[in-house]
Design a protein that fits this description.
Strand order of the largest sheet: 4-3-2-1-5
Largest sheet: 5 strands, antiparallel
Order of helices and strands: EEEEHE
Shape: globular
Distance between the termini: 16 Å
Number of strands: 5
Radius of gyration: 12 Å
Strand content: 35-45%
Length: 80
């Protein structure tokens, strides 16, 4: 059995009082998907409606970074 690494990169592209929009993807030069994070509920929605592993991984990492620093990250990545 071969272990496969899963990588997701994300970057903040827009923010207002209620929400933050992040771009995300498997490659930092091709972050073509977007998720919108509700800042008060700390819940996210995939802008393309696709709730897949990559989306969940990005969303969880963004929330984990917020939990640690008490501020929303500008960018980041998650590997597993």
């Amino acid at each position: 059995m071969v272990a496969v690494a899963a990588l997701v990169y994300f970057k903040k592209i827009n923010e207002d009082l209620n929400a933050i929009v992040y771009s995300f993807g498997e490659d930092p030069s091709e972050m073509t998907r977007h998720l919108t994070m509700d800042k008060s509920a700390r819940r996210s929605q995939s802008d393309d409606g696709n709730i897949d592993y990559l989306f969940l991984k990005a969303s969880r990492k963004i929330n984990a970074m917020y939990e640690q620093a008490s501020e929303w990250p500008d960018r980041g990545m998650s590997a597993s």
